[in-house]
Design a protein that fits this description.
The chain is an alpha+beta fold. It folds into 3 domains: 5-54 and 77-172 and 293-304 and 358-431, 3-Layer(bba) Sandwich (FAD/NAD(P)-binding domain), CATH 3.50.50; 195-291, no CATH class; 447-613, Sandwich (Jelly Rolls). It is 20% helix and 25% strand. The protein has helices at residues 20-31, 65-70, 78-90, 96-108, 160-165, 251-271, 305-310, 379-385, 388-408, 412-415, 419-431, 538-541, and strands at residues 5-10, 13-16, 36-39, 113-116, 120-127, 130-138, 143-148, 151-154, 169-170, 195-196, 199-203, 234-235, 240-241, 280-285, 290-291, 296-297, 317-321, 353-356, 368-370, 452-455, 493-494, 503-522, 552-560, 566-572, 579-599, 606-613. The strands form 7 sheets. Strands 20, 21, 22, 23, 24, 25 and 26 form a 7-stranded antiparallel β-sheet that branches. It has a 5-stranded parallel β-sheet with strand order 4-3-2-8-19. A 4-stranded mixed β-sheet has the order 1-7-6-5. A hairpin with a 4-residue loop joins strand 6 (130-138) and strand 7. Helix 1 packs parallel to helix 9 (388-408) and helix 9 (388-408) crosses helix 11 (419-431).
Length: 615
Amino acid sequence: MGKEQHHERVCDILVAGGGMAGVTCALAAARNGAKVILCQDRAVLGGNSSSEIRLPIMGADVCGKRGALLEVEAREGGILEEIRLENAYRNPQRCPEMWDFTLFEKCRTEPNLELLLNTAVTGADVADNTITKAHAVRISTEDAFHITAQIYIDCTGDGRLGIEAGAKYTEGRESRREYDESKAPETADNYRLGSSLLFMARDMGHPVRFIPPAFARKFTETDLQQRTHKNLEFGYWWIEYGGTLDTIKDNEQIRDELLAIMMGVWDHIKNGGDHGAENWALTWFGFTPGKRESRRFVGRYRLKQGDIEQAVDFPDTIAYGGWALDIHPPQGIDAPKNHPGTVVFNEYIKHLFGIPMRACVSANINNLMFAGRNISATHIAFSATRVMGTCAVIGQGVGTAGALGVVQSISPADMAGNKAFMKQLQQQLLHDDCFIPGVSNQDENDLARKAHITASSFQENGEPVNIISGETRAVHGPQGVKRGLTRLGTHRWMSKPVEGFPAWIQLEWPRPVELSRVQLIFDTGLYRALTLSHYSNFYNAEMYWSPQPETVKAYHIEYAADDGKMIRLASEPENYQRRRVHCFERLKITRLRLIVKSTWGLNHARVIEVRCYEK
């Protein structure tokens, strides 16, 4: 260990890795009562979405195409939606470092969460197939940490914590026959998806020279015939290399070659013919490869191509995805005749698919879980689960499971087989605004489900009772909601536009109930894409990088006193979030009313769910 100062830490849950899976995992565990330590080996959080790499977070919405083509509200909810909405509100300039800061602030201000940046997990002690202690080093301060926890969660992508603990894992591509996967190669090999480096450029308003380095690769239009390079400001995910190498052990070599490729591509754009780039100059480029694939752990279940395509209904589902089986040639840019990846807009998976808890629990280490791109899946199934939006909702599912497991002294190895635990876990995830295919609100403590619901007005298929339908999004194709049009299965109250504002919805009970907490879910346009992207093309044009126009902006909550007079409980003048929770001293209430005074643009009120609790 050298001259490091040694520190002992004790927590309920250690989360290793601060990418999107690690961030949502740590926050979910902490918010559900666990004492959490989050170790991130870099100075910023967010992994591939951070300012170091700058990939946009893709997910089940397939860049908004599910909403546009299938009328499905597929964008991830829960903590990821909270963070996206926060950043859209506070970062209209789309600053990459502000995204880093948003993630940092969320973790830094969470009371149950200790954040250790620049801290890499480097070892683990194991006894009886159980991790007893993890070891981490922070080189910047010459500190070493020895962390004792009940549950350990590997969100490192490369699986560093699990490898140190001796967890079973796999690499490369399985053969077609091994799991009956039509998209797999005939013969198994150690190839994988490669890594990418991105760049940003700007029109300077005058001619700018580009002098390539001596090591820059040379490319022609024939070399790039399958790789569109018309957009100049942000490119390109297909600058991909390293899939035929070891993306962990050869990462430095891969980085160097990616720089040579990136500079060569820009040299071609600037100096290899008329690309309209005379006035354009590079303003940023990455030095940290955006890694797609390395190790995948062996869990209690392994996701396969058929599970994704058939959207298997797992009893222990904790998250969902919807990205395509997006398979890239391992040779990356050195396969010029091949398309660089699946055309996800045309080959999306028909249905949203579930991800089971068992795929996130180690097959041989009892208290080890994982979330992110290292979950238990074949190479083919992984190609759909690897995107950051899906990794983030897996993270929230795993973090929530870990916290509940700590409280109930249930080890990860025993969680999936415990029906009562799984029901509680799924209901908690729904409570926290996650979506689980096929699961609806059955919370017996939610008193709103026993109320009579009325409203000032409502549209057809936007009836007041929809706020207790148990569903919080439209996911059934033409029965969903597209671009503000009312369709069947909206699962929300919608007031009549002609009635204007204020509009109200009311819950009334035949006998007084005791309440101290009200939870609201508002419409935030989940059929659209919403992610920090540095394109200004069609992708950003379809987003509202600001408060979402459907969202209720100003509202207040009031209740009826004994004399019938309405008394205000809570008020919000500038809401922009989807999920809002209001707590107050316990009151006996027979009538509760939510009054909507304005939205961020829509001409009527939309409320998706109201929950009421005694505690």
